[in-house]
Amino acid sequence: MIELERVSKYYGNRVGVDDLNLSVPKGQILGLLGPNGAGKTTTMRLITGYLEPTKGKITIAGYDVVEDGLKARRRIGYLPENPPVYPDMSVEGYLTFVARIREVPRSEVTQAVQHVMGRLELTNVRKRLIGRLSKGYKQRVGLAQAIVHTPDVLVLDEPSSGLDPKQITEIRELIRELGKEHTVILSSHILPEVSALCEQVAIINKGKIVAVDRPKSLAQHIQGSATLKATVKGPREDVVRTVQQVEGVLAVKVTKEGEGYVSLSLDVVKGSDPREELFYTLAGRDWPLLELTRQEANLEDVFLQLTTEEAGAKEGQRRA
């Protein structure tokens, strides 16, 4: 549905994005993650046709966004970080206006507007001026304008930006529902949101895509060792020394110490499970094991590792 082939965007001698390759099949929600200035918004503007690539090819449903720009854009709904709404228009009037410029057939405009207002729970505010709506409702209007023409593809740039926790939950559920009928690309700095919503994640750093996979697979890929968390009732130095001798334990770090107990973080060999031996070793020393859990890498760990490494082109690098 969405294909990027060796796409680059240069601003003079400066690189915006460099040699991007990305494929998003029909019906998938893909999360685009990256630090500020990494190239997320540039990538979205390229996909939606707001920017033209310096090199490479982008197709939407088989249509080239440059050579068949109009046909490609008809299949896209776009919600920028700041929704393109007119504060002095009513919700219904604005959506009617958007439906017309999006070339919804005249005979179907009213039905399309009523349908999208119902779907996004805007019917009760349809006569209100957009400028008087809350941030959450303005975001709903922004989503409504993106889908009023029933596009194949939705591109959402920071759809939860500026919302309170309740509004974030509501928008998240709306996106999940929209993902059942549309191919969705969304950018977000809220990592739990991406983990909860997205089947695939693309991480972009300094203009380059450095990883694309399912969130869980990414976590497994970066995890060179597993981590155990243990709390033991016993003398600190003796406990640490004993735990370090358990087969499969690579390193031991004290994370907390209290009266008569110590909490530890244990790096263990990937694929090993020393928990049983650890239990019996501590029991043999009459040191009660108060807690023992396995900690898995999460999307935040992946993001931090891949965006703090020297991956991708250096910011502001110059073309050869």
Structural key phrases:
11 helices; single chain; 320 residues; alpha/beta; Alpha-Beta Plaits; 4-stranded antiparallel beta sheet; 6-stranded mixed beta sheet; Rossmann fold
Question: How does this model look, in words?
Answer:
34% of the residues lie in helices and 30% in strands. By secondary structure, it is α/β, with parallel strands linked by helices. The protein folds into 2 domains: 2-220, 3-Layer(aba) Sandwich (Rossmann fold), CATH 3.40.50.300; 224-296, Alpha-Beta Plaits (2-Layer Sandwich). The protein has a 6-stranded mixed sheet, with helices on both faces. Strands 2-1-4-5 form a 4-stranded antiparallel sheet. It has a 4-stranded antiparallel sheet with strand order 12-13-11-14, with helices on one face. It starts with a strand and ends in a 12-residue tail after the last helix. The relative contact order is 0.14.
Number of domains: 2
Q: Record the strand order, biggest sheet.
A: 6-7-8-3-9-10
Quickly count the helices: 11
Average pLDDT score: 89
Oligomer: single chain
CATH class of the largest domain: Alpha Beta
Portion of residues in beta strands equals 25-35%
CATH architecture of the largest domain: 3-Layer(aba) Sandwich
Structural class: alpha/beta
Q: Biggest β-sheet: count, sense, barrel?
A: 6 strands, mixed
Let me know the CATH homologous superfamily of the largest domain. P-loop containing nucleotide triphosphate hydrolases
Gap between N and C termini:
33 Å
Regions with little confidence, pLDDT below 50 for 5+ residues = 310-320
CATH topology of the largest domain: Rossmann fold
Number of strands: 14
Q: Describe the global form.
A: elongated
